[in-house]
Amino acid sequence: MDGRRYSGVAIALHWLIAAAIIANVALAWIWPHLADERVRPAIDVHKSIGVTVLGLAVMRLLWRATHAPPPLPNRYQRWELALSHATHGLLYLLIFAMPLSGWIMDSAWKDAATHPMFWFGLFQWPRLGFIMALDLDTRNWLHDLFGAAHVWGSYLLYGLFALHVGGAFKHQLLDGDAELQRMWFAR
């Protein structure tokens, strides 16, 4: 079994990123129902979590580039392997695309210059200066474009999350494979 387990670093990065993404999805669903004075703080936490996911994603990609994942069992069907690889590839793409699209959207926001963003209230997180330097019409267009990409990316994320979790539980519960143990802390 140990040859099929992910490394401790890969497991920690997986669950940190997963928890951060779940928290960000929850915030995005909650803030429309908050009192007006609580919306901006919720959005600021969402942004802080987003840039944290981006940093963790860079670390995870670097780890993955230098540490091969454990092989999948030989008994998996070809379509299962193809779907697994496609799902994981798209999830990797999204853990970069979502924070980047949010950062671009935030940098293009018409009030970005007068409303700095602070990473969890600790220090000012920079906006993308080359975007802030654009004329207002272009920034508004970019804000809307990357805002739409961020929303559509979230829908894709929901579907991929369902495939990822559903596949893991299918292998664990229906096929009797020790799939969840590959990416869990305890042996």
Structural notes for this entry:
With 187 residues, the protein is mostly helical. Helix 1 runs antiparallel to helix 2 (36-66), helix 2 packs across helix 3 and helix 3 (78-108) packs antiparallel against helix 5. It has one domain (2-183). It has helices at residues 8-30, 36-66, 78-108, 129-132, 136-174; strands at residues 117-119, 123-125. Helix content is 68%, strand content 3%. The model has no long low-confidence stretch (mean pLDDT 92). The termini are close together. The longest helix has 39 residues, at 136-174. The chain has five helices and two strands; from the N terminus they run αααββαα.
Short summary:
With 187 residues, this protein is mostly helical. The chain has 5 helices and 2 strands, in the order αααββαα. Helix 2 crosses helix 3.
Distance between the termini: 9 Å
Q: Which class do the helix and strand fractions yield? A: mainly alpha
Mean pLDDT: 92
Low-confidence stretches: none
Bin the helical content.
Answer: 55-70%
How many extended strands? 2
How much of the sequence lies in strands comes to under 5%
What characterizes the major β-sheet? 2 strands, antiparallel
Radius of gyration: 19 Å
Count of folded domains: 1
Which term fits the overall shape? elongated
